[in-house]
């Protein structure tokens, strides 16, 4: 009988990490041995290697006990654990310190059939995970792959599917000759990452740690809401009602993103509401400016924030990581040709590297602290 957490069996490869392969038969036995050794107490996978962490998480799913998958360097306080909790995870911390979340097994596993239909991940695939499991997009991708019966790997050379944020996808493409599908999330896909992945099918999905999957698309189609997920736009901000939300979340959860809902449940997400910069009464969306600046010659990475201004209310500040030999003046001149007056950064800050979360998103809270 097929278990909820494992879709493969016998000699099918389940995990390939550090040159070692676990078959599904071996993985199933390792899960049972974990349960025998650790009993029914609360589990903690936070400091384990990826294979051991997945064994631990699958054991928790099989036994119905909670399991922590947190960043060991930024553990949140948890006053209590809900009785039905399975995964004890956190937000990414892209806008501040990670917040604790708890979700049921059903809040993820029930979405896996729809995710499989969208992504086309199949048992024959080798699925590359490009970040730590405490970043929920990677944990979600790994558990989904095991549920399908695919193999989770750390070897780009063998991968046929990858889960990655756009910046990491750019790096992986050249190392993954057999890649056929890239599953992108975390931040919006930019033209540079899409171009780098030429010939690879790109699946982009939108969601958050609190509400999981909200919408998805096969590029270049528009994002569309998943069945069973409803949204409202209130004062330009997105609110989501979904069966996949975390425990304790309100029925209508405010994600905090600026968004528009079109025909046929098409969703356009414009970026974080808190990243809307009011420049003299004109709203400039930080992510829109970032997408444009990221296409300029010499720009390796960029992040945009609002800075207080006595006359205009706010102005745009751009933190940029540049190629060697490229100066701010060169980039500024290119920017003037493609950005409107309000969106044009008044302050440019060159950095050797932008602060990032574990999932690869810009840590805006850290960046604001750095620039103020």
Can you give keywords for this protein?
372 residues; four-stranded mixed sheet; GMP Synthetase, Chain A, domain 3; nine-stranded mixed sheet; alpha/beta; Rossmann fold; single chain; 10 helices
Descriptive notes:
- The chain has 372 residues and is of the alpha/beta class.
- The chain folds into 2 domains: 13-225, ANL, N-terminal domain (Rossmann fold); 280-371, 2-Layer Sandwich (GMP Synthetase, Chain A, domain 3).
- 26% of the residues lie in helices and 30% in strands.
- The strands form 5 sheets. A 9-stranded mixed sheet has the order 2-1-8-7-9-10-11-12-13.
- α1 (24-38) packs across α2 (50-63).
- The N and C termini lie far apart (58 Å).
- The relative contact order is 0.10.
User: How widely separated are the two ends?
Assistant: 58 Å
Question: How many domain modules?
Answer: 2
User: At the fourth CATH level, what is the homologous superfamily of the largest domain?
Assistant: ANL, N-terminal domain
Note the beta-strand portion.
Answer: 25-35%
How many individual β-strands?
22
Radius of gyration: 21 Å
Q: Poorly predicted ranges (pLDDT <50, ≥5 residues)?
A: none
Largest sheet: 9 strands, mixed
| CATH overall fold name of the largest domain | Rossmann fold
Question: What structural class is derived from the secondary structure elements?
Answer: alpha/beta
Q: How do the strands line up in the largest sheet? A: 2-1-8-7-9-10-11-12-13
How helical, in percent, are the residues? 25-40%
